[in-house]
Amino acid sequence: MRRRTHAAFALLALALAPRGTMGQAPPCQFRGAPDALPERPSPLDSVLVRLDGAQAKLCYGRPSAGGTPRVGAEIPFGTPWQMGANEPTTLHLTFPARLGTVDLAPGSYSLYAIPDASDWTIVVNANPNRWGSPITADVRAADIGSFSLRPAALPTYVDRLTFRFEPTSPTAGALVFAWERTRLSIPLTRR
């Protein structure tokens, strides 16, 4: 009887444990009423990353370009941009990782980019709870690090911003950004 009681308490503790403590990424955070999410012009989406038995999650809003050039026009080159819509694009890590060249402890981070015609700078920010835009000097004061990537041209037009994860080994892969005619491959490695 005593073993069953301990087993029941152990199962209850596991069920009530905060997400992330067992290698599972937390749910995406959003502002507003849950029933309003389907009405957003830029839907909330996420990408689940599995590396060596643990999970990470990238949460982002998916704007549509609508056939109108956005990056380099509405989003001017050299200007910080949230890489999505609404809430900031946020990376939730349950394990130590390296994103590009930036080493990160387990936790949540917002990401933004500074696009340019030939190179994009990806910036990791310590504040995942801010609104996505604008990226002011106050927001940038919480930057942890950054790295540059060379964008690749997509062979076909992608109207709705999309991220996906492409594994390259059990402990590494890339978060792949695709929008309009631009593709970025953002390296992510479990340390």
**How large, in whole angstroms, is the Cα Rg?**
18 Å
- Protein structure class: mainly beta
The DSSP helix count reads: 2
Oligomer description? single chain
Broad shape: globular
Task: Describe the protein's architecture and organization.
With 191 residues, this protein is mainly beta. The protein has one domain (35-190). The chain contains two helices and ten strands, in the order H-E-E-E-E-E-E-E-H-E-E-E. The protein has helices at residues 2-16, 137-140, and strands at residues 44-51, 54-61, 89-93, 97-99, 102-104, 107-114, 120-125, 143-149, 152-169, 172-190. The strands form two sheets. It has a six-stranded antiparallel sheet with strand order 1-2-3-6-7-8, with no helix packed on it. Strand 4 (97-99) and strand 5 form a beta hairpin. The protein is globular.
Task: Write a brief structural summary.
The protein has 191 residues and is mostly beta strands.
Topology diagram in text:
Elements: H1 2-16, E1 44-51, E2 54-61, E3 89-93, E4 97-99, E5 102-104, E6 107-114, E7 120-125, H2 137-140, E8 143-149, E9 152-169, E10 172-190
Antiparallel strand pairs: 1-2, 2-3, 3-6, 4-5, 4-10, 6-7, 7-8, 9-10
Keywords summarizing the entry:
191 residues, mainly beta, 6-stranded antiparallel sheet, 4-stranded antiparallel sheet, 2 helices, 10 strands, 10% helix
